[in-house]
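Long-time lurker, first post. I've been practising inverse folding by hand and with some scripts of my own, and I keep getting stuck on stretches where the structure tokens seem ambiguous. Below is the full token string for one chain I'm working on. Before anyone asks, I'm not after the true native sequence, just a reasonable design that respects the backbone. If someone could post their per-position residues I'd love to compare against what I wrote down in my notebook.
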């Protein structure tokens, strides 16, 4: 059991080191919204439901902002919020990132 625990600690340390290396390479804006994206499949517990046979309900996607505790029940709601946040952030940019406008144009087509 101690051997497994030691392996987990080594793996966790390696992952944390890799995360730190990746984050140091990014130049993040202070306006960046920190959030989590979760996709869930749920079971309801009803006797004759399909989820009892392994076909769970879902997927349910939730976009959570831990600071404000906001959450959005679908991918579309999360994407729209991202579009609105990015549009707001871009107003303050002096020089936009390369190829960024193409992505924003796609968002604008979908969300107007």
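-- Answer (accepted) --
I ran through it position by position. Result:
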């Amino acid at each position: 059991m101690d051997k497994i625990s030691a392996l987990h600690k080594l793996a966790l340390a390696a992952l944390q080191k890799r995360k730190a290396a990746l984050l140091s390479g990014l130049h993040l804006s202070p306006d960046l919204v920190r959030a989590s994206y979760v996709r869930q499949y749920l079971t309801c517990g009803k006797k004759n439901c399909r989820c009892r046979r392994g076909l769970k309900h879902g997927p349910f996607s939730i976009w959570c902002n831990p600071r404000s505790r906001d959450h959005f029940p679908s991918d579309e709601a999360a994407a729209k919020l991202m579009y609105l946040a990015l549009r707001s952030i871009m107003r303050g940019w002096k020089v936009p990132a390369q190829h960024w406008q193409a992505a924003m144009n796609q968002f604008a087509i979908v969300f107007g």
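A couple of notes from the structure itself: Helices lie at 2-25, 75-90, 100-111. Residues 28-111 form one domain. Happy to go over any region you disagree with.
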